[in-house]
């Protein structure tokens, strides 16, 4: 919204969202609380590696909209989100980002969900663009290879929602059926 409508209130709210993500919800060494009380006091729980990688992209994008980029502290925290997700949520054997982990970073659900894969791909590409560190490009390429090989339905279009660590389809979603596309987080149905 802030790209097309530079309303002061929109920009204020965007700055508030960035502040909430990078302060009360952010925890070292690079993870986000998924749940908080009304006053933004975090409630400790599990981790979503894909959400954390996506958050890094969204925070950087928002910082640019707020004319607060480059910002070394914002970059440090966003990089830490990506690094923690890779260190703890990356499937070293099969490739791809896993679905869930506990607060310490131990994987608790090693399946691969389409959105976690797509969002981590976006986060990795953004981090490569911002740092020029080839490690992020390499992980982005490996994430794309896993998605293209195991989760994109090349026959009918769309995505296979959930696959096993090795890429066998184990769950699907009516929202991702043929004729439905997900583009940059927006679901679009044909017809």
Helix and strand arrangement:
Blueprint: H1 8-22, E1 26-27, E2 31-32, E3 35-36, E4 42-43, E5 47-48, H2 49-65, H3 72-89, E6 100-101, E7 107-109, E8 112-113, H4 114-131, H5 134-151, E9 162-163, E10 169-171, E11 180-183, E12 186-189
Helix pairs in contact: 1-2, 2-3, 2-4, 3-4, 4-5
* Shape category: globular
Low-confidence stretches: 178-191
Distance between the termini: 26 Å
The side-by-side strand order for the widest beta sheet comes to 5-6-7
In which range does the helix fraction lie? 40-55%
H/E series: HEEEEEHHEEEHHEEEE
The fraction of residues assigned to DSSP E strands is: 15-25%
What characterizes the major β-sheet?
Answer: 3 strands, antiparallel
Q: Structural class of the helices, strands and pairings?
A: alpha+beta
Mean pLDDT: 90
Count of beta strands: 12
Return Rg in Å. Answer: 17 Å
* Alpha plus pi helix count: 5
How would you describe what is shown here?
- The chain has 191 residues and is of the alpha+beta class.
- It has five helices and twelve strands.
- Helix 1 (8-22) runs antiparallel to helix 2 (49-65).
- The longest helix has 18 residues, at 72-89.
- The chain is globular.
- The model is unreliable at 178-191 (pLDDT under 50).
How would you concisely characterize the structure shown here?
The protein is α+β, with helices and mostly antiparallel strands and 191 residues long. It contains five helices and twelve strands.
Task: Note the main attributes of this structure.
191 residues, alpha+beta, three-stranded antiparallel β-sheet, 5 helices, 45% helix
């Amino acid at each position: 919204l802030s790209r097309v409508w530079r309303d002061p209130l929109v920009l204020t709210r965007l700055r508030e969202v960035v502040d909430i993500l990078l302060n009360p919800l952010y925890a070292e060494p690079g993870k986000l609380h998924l749940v908080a009380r009304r006053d933004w006091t975090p409630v400790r729980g599990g981790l979503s590696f894909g959400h954390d990688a996506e958050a890094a992209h969204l925070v950087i994008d928002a910082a640019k909209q707020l004319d607060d980029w480059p910002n070394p502290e914002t970059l440090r925290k966003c990089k830490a989100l990506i690094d923690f997700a890779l260190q703890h949520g990356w499937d070293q054997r099969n490739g791809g980002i896993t679905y869930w982990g506990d607060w310490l970073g131990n994987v608790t659900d090693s399946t691969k969900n389409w959105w976690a894969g797509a969002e981590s791909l976006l986060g990795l590409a953004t981090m490569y663009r911002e740092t020029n560190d080839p490690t992020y490009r390499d992980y982005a390429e490996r994430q794309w290879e896993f998605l293209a090989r195991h989760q994109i339905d090349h026959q009918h279009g769309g995505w296979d929602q959930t696959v096993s660590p090795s890429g066998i389809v184990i769950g699907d979603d009516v929202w991702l059926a043929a004729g439905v596309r997900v583009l940059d987080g927006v679901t679009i149905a044909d017809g």
